Amino acid sequence: MNTTFPEKFLWGGALAANQVEGAWQEDGKGISTSDMLPEGIFGEPVKSREGISSIKDVAIDFYHRYPEDISLFAEMGFTCLRVSIAWTRIFPMGDENEPNEAGLAWYDKLFDELRAHNIQPLVTLSHYEMPWGLVENYGGWGNRKVITFFERYARTVFTRYQHKVKLWLTFNEINMSLHAPLTGVGLQKGCSKAEVYQAIHHQLVASGLAVKACHEIIPDAKIGNMLLGGLMYPLTCKPEDVFATLQDNRQWQFFGDVQCRGRYPGYMQRYFRENDIALNITEEDNAALSHTVDFISFSYYMTGCVTADSELVEKLKGNILDMVPNPHLESSEWGWQIDPIGLRTLLNVLWDRYQKPLFIVENGLGAQDKPDANGEINDDYRISYLNDHLVQVQEAIQDGVDVMGYTSWGPIDIISASKAEVTKRYGFIYVDLAQDGSGTLNRSRKKSFYWYQKVIATRGGALQR
């Protein structure tokens, strides 16, 4: 068996603007939904940022330190870096007619720096943030007008960076809107299921219009969607558990079905009927949905189980998405179950379902890395986690799955999205930063840095099977 990855396979890491950049009000940047959630996406939004600080305000100061960080990524051998553009740097309130030049100019510098190191940018248009002005003044994605504002934003950055960026994503983990509607679609607490799905519909329409715009403005570019790969298993082989699992997986597959096939699947139409959800869908909406993505990207961290026994669900559920744990798997410090074979399964499921190229744009292990007496971090647990997952990616490629690349989350320590924690570290590069904001922000290489460097240099040949 060939144990090396294809020559064109892209290797790298993934970042999000609101988790690394800092400079939250610099160069004309507006306030985003992320800024109004100083304690993370599962916290409560503040009424005003006056007198309130967040660790995300400075984060790891990527806004000023990006040349140093990109140099370290290049040292590891990255051929791709996934980043996001902060929408509020380009349109601070979201509804302006003209973009903020200072924001556009900063991303020019970022993409130029990547090109100088032969690292291809993979750019997410909206990664867990949107202008707060669109939430306050329009009601977020619940308002159809936001589609127009997003299309203007997308066309602006496509036009500006058409010669610098050839790989794009629309919305990060678009299915997370079902779990965190303020972050996903800008809807406040207490919104109904019907309101959430109408806002999601507007976002899916906007995604289709972004695909159309990308194809028009940058004909040689590829644009994909981005799913939270929430693969679920039946807890038992009882037919009820198996069917409940099918239904559960469809909650996230639905987003991929619309973005890859250009229409709503029958099972969702039934769901809407039975839950008294009557979406306002126009002929123009259907035309926009017909513009389907070129490839599918997704995050993968864990799997979970499903049972039709509601009492058992209440008794067993755990971790951030309240999934029923798998009794056959171990868990990370944060209760996320570790399942490398699940990644191979998910790759095959998505390939069989859509027959479109796949890109693993998030996968990693959050842990409390602590320097030893010599200041070194021997994160063998991370090496083991990533090794075992990459072995399964290679297995999927041998299965015939078309995999474009792998960008680990996040290649340098960042601020976590869920609870704005810096103690939950993912990186190959350690950042000297404590939860109270103290620290030098100095960067240092962990043991996994050299391991990933060798894996990339050997195109996966150094992986342990």
UniProtKB/TrEMBL annotation:
PROSITE patterns: GLYCOSYL_HYDROL_F1_1 (PS00572), GLYCOSYL_HYDROL_F1_2 (PS00653). It comes from the Bacteria. The active site is at 362 (nucleophile). The keyword Aminoacyl-tRNA synthetase does not apply. Its EC number is 3.2.1.86. One of its GO terms (molecular function) is 6-phospho-beta-glucosidase activity. Keywords: Glycosidase, Hydrolase. This is 6-phospho-beta-glucosidase BglB. The gene is bglB. InterPro entries: GH (IPR017853), GH_1_N_CS (IPR033132), Glyco_hydro_1 (IPR001360), Glyco_hydro_1_AS (IPR018120). Gene3D superfamilies: Glycosidases (3.20.20.80). Pfam families: Glyco_hydro_1. Belongs to the glycosyl hydrolase 1 family.
